[in-house]
């Protein structure tokens, strides 16, 4: 088997998910962030190889069109100053290299951009359309890409950078210089996982078509949110009884909740597809059906007109209008200013919080 960083990461997160996708070759539904990311990468590749910016975006949208994406959002990400700054270098390099001396285990990958400077130094960039930033050392992706570049260029160090395209220039860059020791560590990480997978696949083959859940166990966690196999995987749910005595129990139940929610939303998607074709699905005296939700889109000028008319009729429109925190932020209204007009109210909801949100 040929390995890539994303294959290995999937195995490290959840061996069952790896098994569903790469051993059973089960199809996966495209997700909006995945399609957006692929479209942005293709558009950047086209732009950096000479296609005019807007044309690059149009072509990428046509090429990667598994799901509709917002053209303006793609354009905004692609015209990031870091992308515009690139001159020369190698764009979207595909590589395949053996991880071991014998050449049995192969690693493949795509390097978004890299350049070897005249003195021998090597720089590499990986574009990210993620909302949440992280450091290169949080995982082994750039360590592995750097290791590959060190092998083909002879560089003892590689300057690697993640560029988060949703952030302004100064905040978008997460850079790290990999030493030969760190690059070798990344290779060892990949080699150890790939060898483990090879051994398990050999064992699985000996079972002659049989299944062994212990070889590729399901490990529920945050990654279940994006898993396409949750509804199949829930057969191994382990929450009997739902009782929380300590932190380990609490973490186990929390991970199972994410897996179950993911399975539920997958099942709902299947129901939706069925209902689209055949109509409402009855469950006792209730049913799953498409229920219209109505809202009005009124531009600012017309909204002003409507409010004036209501005011003229003697209604106090401000009793009914609310300003959301997001819109106040967009208008640059600070907490200090708001304190002059009202009292802050804080309510708490119990939900899964991203690490950055929790700070
Ligand atoms: S739902 Fe979660 S535990 Fe199950 S296969 Fe997917 S990622 Fe693994």
UniProtKB/TrEMBL annotation:
- Would I find Thylakoid among this entry's keywords? no
Q: What is the top-level taxon of the source organism?
A: Bacteria
InterPro entries per the UniProt record, alphabetical: PDDEXK-like_dom_sf (IPR011604), PDDEXK_AddAB-type (IPR038726), Restrct_endonuc-II-like (IPR011335)
* Keyword annotations from UniProtKB, A to Z: ATP-binding, DNA damage, DNA repair, DNA-binding, Helicase, Hydrolase, Nucleotide-binding
Record domain PD-(D/E)XK endonuclease-like: where: 4-233
Q: What is this protein called?
A: PD-(D/E)XK endonuclease-like domain-containing protein
Q: Which Pfam families match?
A: PDDEXK_1
Say if the entry is tagged with keyword DNA damage.
Answer: yes
- Give me the segments passing through the membrane: none
Q: Identify the species of origin.
A: Sporomusa acidovorans (strain ATCC 49682 / DSM 3132 / Mol)
């Amino acid at each position: 088997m040929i390995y890539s960083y994303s294959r290995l990461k999937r195995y490290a997160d959840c061996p069952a998910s790896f098994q569903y996708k790469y051993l059973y070759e089960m199809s996966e539904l495209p997700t909006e962030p995945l399609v957006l990311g692929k479209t942005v990468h293709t558009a950047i590749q086209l732009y950096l190889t000479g296609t005019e910016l807007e044309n690059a975006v149009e072509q990428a949208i046509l090429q990667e069109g598994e799901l509709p994406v917002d053209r303006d959002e793609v354009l905004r990400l692609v015209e990031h100053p870091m992308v515009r700054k690139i001159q020369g270098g190698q764009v979207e390099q595909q590589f395949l290299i053996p991880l071991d001396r014998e050449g049995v285990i192969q690693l493949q990958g795509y390097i978004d951009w890299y350049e070897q400077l005249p003195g021998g130094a090597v720089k590499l960039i990986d574009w990210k359309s993620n909302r949440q930033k992280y450091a290169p050392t949080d995982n082994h992706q750039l360590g592995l890409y750097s290791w590959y570049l060190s092998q083909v260029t002879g560089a003892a160090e590689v300057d690697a950078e993640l560029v988060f395209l949703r952030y302004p220039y100064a905040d978008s860059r997460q850079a790290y210089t990999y030493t030969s020791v760190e690059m070798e560590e990344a290779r060892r990480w990949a080699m150890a996982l790939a060898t483990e997978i090879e051994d398990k696949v050999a064992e699985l083959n000996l079972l002659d078509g049989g299944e062994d859940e212990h070889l590729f166990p399901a490990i529920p966690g945050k990654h279940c949110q994006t898993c396409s196999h949750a509804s199949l995987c829930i057969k191994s749910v382990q929450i009997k009884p739902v009782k929380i005595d300590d932190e380990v129990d609490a973490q186990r139940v929390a991970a199972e909740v994410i897996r179950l929610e993911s399975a539920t939303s997958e099942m709902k998607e299947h129901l939706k597809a069925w209902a689209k074709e055949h109509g409402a699905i009855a469950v006792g005296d209730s049913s799953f059906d498409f229920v219209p939700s109505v809202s009005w889109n009124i531009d600012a000028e017309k909204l002003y007109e409507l409010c004036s008319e209501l005011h003229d009729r003697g209604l106090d429109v401000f009793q009914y209008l609310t300003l959301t925190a997001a819109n106040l932020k967009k208008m640059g209204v600070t907490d200090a200013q708001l304190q002059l007009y009202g009292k802050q109210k804080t309510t708490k909801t119990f939900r899964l919080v991203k690490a950055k949100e929790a700070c």
